[in-house]
Amino acid sequence: MAEPKTKYDRQLRIWGEQGQAALEKASICLLNCGPTGSETLKNLVLGGVGSITIVDGSKVEFGDLGNNFMVDDSSLGQSKAKCVCSFLQELNDAVKAKFIEEYPEALIDTNPSFFSQFTLVVATQLVEESMVKLDRICRQENVMLIFARSYGLTGLVRISVKEHTVIESKPDHFLDDLRLNNPWPELRGFAEAIDLNVQDPVAHKHIPYVVILVKMADEWKTSHGGTLPSTREQKREFKELLKARMAAMDEDNYKEAIDASFKLFAPQGIIAALKEFIANEGGGEVPLEGSIPDMTSSTEHYVNLQKIYQAKSEADYLVLEERVRNILKKIGRDPHSIPKATIKSFSKNARKLKVCRYRSIEDEYNNPSPAELQKYLTDEDYSIAVGFYILLRAVDRYAANFNHFPGQFVGGLDEDISRLKTTAVSLLNDLGCSGLTLTEDLINEMCRFGAAELHAVAAIIGGIASQEVIKLITKQFVPMTGTFAFNAIDHKSQLLNLC
Amino acid sequence: MADAAPPSKSRDLDKLLLRPGNLVGPTFDPGVQLRDDLQEYARVLVVGAGGLGCELLKDLALSGFKNLEVIDMDRIEVTNLNRQFLFRLEDVGKPKAEVAAKRVMERVSGVNIVPHFCRIEDKDIEFYNDFNIIALGLDSIEARSYINAVACSFLEYDSDDNPREETMKPMVDGGTEGFKGHARVIVPGVTPCFECTIWLFPPQVKFPLCTLAETPRNAAHCIEYAHLIKWDEVHSGQAFDPDNPDHMKWVYDEAVKRAELFGIPGVTYSLTQGVVKNIIPAIASTNAIISAACTLETLKIASGCSKTLSNYLTYNGVEGLHTKVTEFVKDKDCLVCGPGILIELDTAVTLKKFIDMLEEDPKVLMTKASITYHGKNLYMQAPPVLEEMTRSNLELPLYDLMDKTPKDVLHATGTINKDDKKSSGLRKLRVVFKGIDGVTDMDMAGGA
């Protein structure tokens, strides 16, 4: 076997060894292994999830050979779950792969406790009724759940978890935590020891901008009654002041100071969960993150500055840890039940913590948001995506009445179209949007799709689902909130804020 | 009552290809014929058999295409296996294109995939003209630029400078980095080409050498010092090879020493590799999403079964999920997809003189140019056999070599020197001979 570190190198650079360890501990259950489910699992097996269990009661038919890469001609007539499972196993022998030849709907009805053994369930191609039931079970058992569905040139992805918390949200663009407007004594002391008017030009152009901004902010405060620049005019004036201090035009550190001066003006966020720290030692701030961006500087200044930020960050963490242990003791829990590493990571990421909550499917369906839906339906960028969202629910109602999806079979298309139209009108009525209609073109299109599961659409839906699964399991990055309504016609897909 | 369809592998695709709709492309002509033509006649080239290429081949094979070819110069490495799902551990070291083609043909019966284990520049231009659509699964700007120039070189303009539809060579292009990616459609003459929007790919930021030499501040500075400065000092003449583990280890050890000297934390072997090889993190899911989006667009272009992406899709899954479609516009003065660079010549100018002129022409700036005229080699710099065969043309007037045609299009391939950077490139040249009847002022006004 290859050294796993090498095999996973390109992803370890994204979620690190901690993220990888979480993946390798996870057990995933897949319901239905058509192309949508198979493609979702393919991406997770390649990444090295701990185990997969495939639930599908169907046999491989001719049509499956044309849309699913995990079956081949020799699979015809065999259990689809078995064939897909054996091919997926080939992709990564570190993954424990098994299958159960049974229809998910039957399992949901007869053996709900089955699902409690998993970290996460990926439910593909389920209709509304089964989605609601499964969601209830998974919420009860505290199992994460994600729905994925491909349908012609549309589809959806929807996460359902009571609450998901993220410590390492790793945002792309985030304001550096430099405390320029509120330096602690060590940082202030460091800045004071450096002379901005130093004569040596080399020394002058290697003063880090953090020092320049801390000192210039102080200077500004003394001449402005203790306040920082706040109006646009004052901010401009402050930048002029910085410019005037440049000893030569090529001083990158002063240019950086001017560019970074907004960091001085930006308000700092407050996280409620850290109330005590903020109210006491924090002096109104969350624990310091401790890293600084690269900036023009001499090596000595930079390394020393970095040490000051790191020392403060470490000190903040130790105080926070102490408080956590005390609180745990007070509420009668083992003071060491939260590991050091978790508290440290929490402390460093205090400004980036995220909480995602998801409504239950039942609640989303029983208590629709007509105002949101109406807004989407009348917005050109959203109308197709939200139209598909409504039609995906309409086809389930249709199927419950007529035992097949509109356009599923050859012939009878006109009748199916008019029936779907009627179904859509009554659904819109139930959603509190009785005045609105869907276009004929879109309803025709939905019937044309005839519940087809196209491979390329399934690969997109499955790709998105697997990416969200990784975020949920590693507890890194921020998973999507809302329902992703896929629109492959012009790719104006939308995340609908309905859950 | 509706009937069940007879068993067919095309069960799901048939819904899209056999039934009429209103949200479709202007050329859509649904029916069995369309499906069969797609299988029989549509030829798609996949450029790159890596993370995107593997997905593209699988997706195309399951989207009604039966005639595929794939070109890639790389061999399989262990670090590919977390996403390039057509490869197994025992395939490490084998050519990607060959293994990928074989695996897809094994799984999807009836599909034919021809692999090409070579550089994209090794194929002559006509090779690329043989395909209806080119799908790009690349990770380099230079390679995209090259294929784009080749595809755009086929584009012809009529006498009113309108692009001729039958000469358009559509491309779909994908790219990913971590949780982010893009998919785009390029129809030369209609949408912007890769070169029209080259600003979307800003050049990689390099550390100033004085920072590396004098004021290193972080681990990457120490690594680049060892890689770019110290290596040459110690190994005079021996080139650094990023794929040689001994070389990499040497750079790592030197970087550690330098970091210790300056009290800088964070130098690891993994980071050393990342910095030196400029490794872009890559995962299966993003590649799957982007490749499938490209495949859908390929299917739409070939069949008209739905509207097309117009013309650039971005996907970002870092914070929640964001997708966005942007309609970029053509650069009307684009040297690559425009009507061609206009060059006026005297009828007496020899091919050799012409090649020399291309080095100086500010719009061309090409050295070592090889020249083709309607697929015919006028002069080839390489291989030596061809060079020898075409050498005698150098002293002949270009006008004669072009069969005394007053104005026409030539293709030049060679090294383009732009902004102090050399790259392989292709330029379309619109040559007009002075003082020949039939050349009017109108033609000249078109410009390049």
From TrEMBL, chain A:
GO molecular function annotations of the record: NEDD8 activating enzyme activity; nucleotide binding
Entry-linked InterPro entries: APP-BP1, ThiF/MoeB/HesA, ThiF_NAD_FAD-bd, Ubiquitin-activating_enz
Domain THIF-type NAD/FAD binding fold, chain residue ranges per copy: 8-484
UniProt keyword Protein biosynthesis, yes or no: no
GO cellular component, one term: nucleus
Nucleotide-binding in keyword set: yes
Pathway noted in the entry: Protein modification; protein neddylation
Matches recorded under PANTHER family: NEDD8-ACTIVATING ENZYME E1 REGULATORY SUBUNIT, UBIQUITIN-ACTIVATING ENZYME E1
Protein task: Regulatory subunit of the dimeric E1 enzyme. E1 activates RUB1/NEDD8 by first adenylating its C-terminal glycine residue with ATP, thereafter linking this residue to the side chain of the catalytic cysteine, yielding a RUB1-ECR1 thioester and free AMP. E1 finally transfers RUB1 to the catalytic cysteine of RCE1.
Name of the featured protein: NEDD8-activating enzyme E1 regulatory subunit
Organism: Gossypium arboreum (Tree cotton)
UniProtKB/TrEMBL annotation, chain B:
GO BP terms, alphabetized: protein neddylation
Coiled-coil stretches: none
Pathway terms, separated by semicolons: Protein modification; protein neddylation
Function, as annotated: Catalytic subunit of the dimeric E1 enzyme, which activates NEDD8.
Catalyzed reaction equations: ATP + [NEDD8 protein] + [E1 NEDD8-activating enzyme]-L-cysteine = AMP + diphosphate + [E1 NEDD8-activating enzyme]-S-[NEDD8 protein]-yl-L-cysteine
Keywords carried by this UniProt record: ATP-binding, Ligase, Nucleotide-binding, Ubl conjugation pathway
Entry GO terms, CC: cytoplasm; nucleus
Family listed: Belongs to the ubiquitin-activating E1 family. UBA3 subfamily.
Organism: Gossypium arboreum (Tree cotton)
Name listed for the protein in its UniProt record: NEDD8-activating enzyme E1 catalytic subunit
Active site location: 210 (glycyl thioester intermediate)
